[in-house]
Structure to design on (221 residues):
């Protein structure tokens, strides 16, 4: 990688999820993304699930531990537990605004989301403010098209999208970048279903996570 010039900064990327459990469908596309846009660090942000969503089967501490085990020894990843330490619903925009304050006004920040999240972004709390604090990097997802759900969302997307990943380093926030990452048809729902049925999941998630799930008796019938 070429050294950062005076108008270019290291790009800090964040990837949130319920991680109930974390699996290769989370990790491998992000590793591919890191290679594609030259990321040196990705911070995993396990979500504290808002009340209107189904509650995870695993506890916050179990979901945190699974995320930590999944990336142990991998220098690309670290885990930030701040959302799990809140008793109130955790809104992505508030977490990102806090990180923006911590990192200062010049640090380029990218928030990684799946194509499925982009399509329904208008349902997020203060979604139109996201690009005021970060870039959005979108991972392709199996079975999801590229048409956004509302004309307003489509206009917003068209106004901010870039095909040049280098631009993500040249400004602290404001762009949407569609990544060319692999499509892995793995879901946490499928893993929980397999576990409930007593079936093997070793092809879907790291061994350390599978061993922890066994030791905790998670996702049993």
């Amino acid at each position: 990688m070429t050294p950062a010039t005076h108008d270019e900064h290291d790009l800090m990327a964040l990837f949130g999820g319920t991680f109930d459990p974390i699996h290769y469908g989370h990790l491998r596309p992000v590793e591919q993304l890191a290679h594609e846009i030259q990321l040196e660090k990705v911070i995993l942000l396990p979500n504290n699930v808002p009340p209107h969503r189904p509650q995870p089967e695993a506890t916050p501490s179990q979901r945190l531990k699974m995320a930590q085990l999944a990336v142990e020894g991998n220098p690309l990843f670290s885990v930030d537990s701040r959302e799990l330490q809140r008793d109130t619903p955790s809104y992505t925009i508030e977490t990102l605004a806090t990180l923006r304050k911590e990192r200062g006004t010049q640090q380029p920040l990218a928030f990684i989301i799946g194509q499925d999240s982009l399509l329904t972004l208008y349902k997020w709390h203060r979604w139109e403010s996201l690009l005021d604090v970060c870039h959005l990097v979108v991972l392709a997802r199996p079975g999801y098209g590229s048409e956004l759900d509302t004309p307003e969302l489509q206009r917003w997307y068209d106004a901010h999208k870039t095909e040049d990943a280098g631009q993500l380093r040249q400004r602290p926030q404001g762009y949407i970048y569609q990544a060319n990452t692999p499509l892995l048809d793995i879901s946490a729902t499928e893993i929980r279903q397999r576990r409930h049925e007593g079936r093997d999941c070793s092809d879907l998630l790291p061994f350390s996570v599978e061993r922890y799930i066994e030791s905790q008796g998670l996702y049993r019938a």
Q: What stands out?
A: The two ends are 48 Å apart (CA to CA). The chain has one domain: 12-185. Residues 1-7 have pLDDT under 50 and may be disordered. The chain has eight helices and seven strands.
